[in-house]
Fold:
Amino acid sequence: MTQLFMHPSIILALCVAFGAAGIALAAGWLTRSGAAAAAITGFLVYWLGGGIAAVPLIAFFVSSSLLTVVGRHRSATKQRISGQSTGRTGVQVCANGGAAVVLVVAHKVFGYHITLDMNRMVQIMFLAAISTVTADTWATEIGSRWGGYARQLSTWRKVAAGTSGAISMVGTAAAAAGALFIPFCAYRLWDMTNAELVAAAWAGLLGCLFDSILGAGLQAQFRNPNTNEISDSAVTNGQRNTLIRGLRWIDNNVVNFIAAIAGALFCWVLLHYGLRRVM
Structure:
């Protein structure tokens, strides 16, 4: 069986990670803080997890960045609602890649103290975490650009595409495609079973839906007191906005990080309680 977590030298890992982050910064895919966070994230995943572990992370970053570039000229309404910049910031990189890093580090620390079956489980959970953030990013980028209106999960009312906690048919289809894309990228390299592939994909989609539920319930949403516009940002042009729902400290980045962890846990549940027995 393919060895999933073969380790390169620390020098090679540093050169590859920081070189790739520099290219992404030059391409406008990352801000300076985003490039620094991406370099550290890529280094840890590549050094501790090996080249095969880095493949799904690269697949997520490249596909998501290309979708962002394609949608860079989307409507001003979407930009106001999402508060997204053209390049990912350090906080956004950590929110999307943090769960994967935690799992890689955990695998390194505890890998020799757990059973082979649990060892494999942690690896597939790592894949599910990346599948979750990919599904969420694809749903946001594709749904916002081509999904038309969306419906808020908490009220089922029609809202502008890209609103936190809202879903659309196009966005949901994009989420399913993104969730499946990551396991397929790793399928041959990881020597995955059908059960593991299905579990990672389903967990990614469930994690994305959980992200929407958190977005509709706990994520903070604000109203600009001057323009009366709704935003995910606590501050607009240096002026503090009014909290109208959710918890002030839970923003989109916190939701993304929690959802990625949830996706990994969904994967564990699927494999531990069912899919390995029926497939």
Remarks:
- Residues 1-5, 75-84 have pLDDT under 50 and may be disordered.
- The beta strands are 150-152, 158-159, 166-167, 221-223, 230-231, 235-236, 239-240, 242-245.
